[in-house]
Every structure is written in C-alpha cells, then in structure tokens.
Amino acid sequence: MEVVNEQDKLLWLATAEQERKKADDEKKIAEKIFYESDQFKQLTVLSWITFSLLGLVIAVTGFVIVRKWPIPIVTDLIWIAIISGVLGSSCSALLSALERKANGWEDKKGNKYPNDEPRDKFSQRMATFFLFRPFFGILAGLIIYFGMQAKLLGDTGISDPAKVIFWSLLSGLFIKTLMEKLKDVFENLVGKK
Fold first, then answer.
1. CA separation for the pair 22, 114 (Å, rounded)
2. In angstroms, rounded to a whole number, what is the distance separating the alpha carbons of residues 89 and 171?
3. Is the separation of the CB atoms in 59 and 114 below 8 Å?
C-alpha cells in the first residue's frame, strides 16, 4: 500500500511541477508580448512625460524659492506658501512615480509585469494622478498659510518666510496624509462616527 501511495505522490509532484512550468512559460510568453506591444511603448513614453513635467515643476518652483522670489508677486507670503506646497507635492509625486516604474508596469487590463509583487506598478491610470498631484500642493500651501495666520499651528510666525516655506514644503510632501488627518479632525468636530 505504501508503494502505491509513494508512486501516487511522485506522480502528483511531477504533474504539479509540469503545471507550474507550463504556467511560468505562459507568463513569460505574455510578458514578451506585452514588452513588444504598442501599449508598453505608450507607457514608456507616458512615464517619461510624467517624469519630465514633474521635474520641470520642481525645477521652476525650486528656482523661485531659492532665488528669494525674483517674481514680484512672489513677495507675498501666500504665494510663497502656495509655491512651496506645489514644490513639496511635486517632489512626492515624482518619487511615487519613479518607485512605481522601478517596480514594473501594469497594462490596461490590470496585468502586472514583470511580477505581481510588489503590487504598485506604473500604469496609465496612475500617470494622470501624478500629473495632477502638484495641484494638491496649492491646497497644502493654503492650509499652512491660513493655519499659521490663524495661529492654529502654534506661534510659528507668519511673517517669517523661511517658516512658511518649511511648513508648506512639508505639507506638500505629505499632502495625502495631511488630508486624511484633516478629515479625521473634521469628523470629530461635527461628531460623525
């Protein structure tokens, strides 16, 4: 009886290994087809457009901040806060986009290449999010500016441009977290459970 069970076990293991090899071969074929497809070429171009545009926003906003506001309108602290928030948010978006590209690609059907893990991959749907994320930096800058003006952030000194830049950059970098925390604060204020 043990011999039959041992033979069955070996047969089962051999069959399982053949099925695993067949699945791996099919996955390699699908991956090869994807990398030769127009969709892969479009994703590659889209990723470089995303990186370039975010890099341009970072360069321009960084230049404006570092050059001590050469544009007359930027002498107003609200604009300094907004530009700093956009800079922080753009840096965060570029970092996320680069991390996703380093992890691989996701096609329109949700198939992930080269592997399913790590889960977050660069995709066409996410590119749009990355390109619009700097606009959330405007919100971050405004939150910091008016929070400082209302002294909700402690006695931080709204008149000090360096503090406005620091807090606006930080809020832009972590705008998603900031929005989640503000949502929690708002729900606590209105008593929503």
1. 17
2. 8
3. no
% of residues, the chain, pLDDT over 70: 91
Q: Is residue 192 part of a domain?
A: no
Are 92 and 158 in the same domain?
yes
Asked if residue 127 and residue 174 are part of one domain, the reply reads yes
Model pLDDT for residues 169-179, shown as the tens digit of each residue: 999 999 989 89
pLDDT in tens, 132-155: 999 999 999 999 998 888 887 766
Residue 191 lies in a domain: no
Tell me, yes or no, whether 193 lies in a domain. Answer: no
pLDDT of res. 93? 95
Pairing of strands 105-106, 112-113: antiparallel
DSSP 75: G
In 3D, which of 138, 143, 152 has the Cα closest to residue 87? 138
Domain carrying residue 12: 1-36
Is-contact 129 108, C-beta < 8 A?
A: no
Render pLDDT for 50-77 as a digit per residue (tens, 0 to 9): 999 999 999 999 888 877 655 555 568 8
Peptide bond into 70 cis (omega under 30): no
- Count the domains in the chain: 2
Quick check: is 42 in a domain?
no
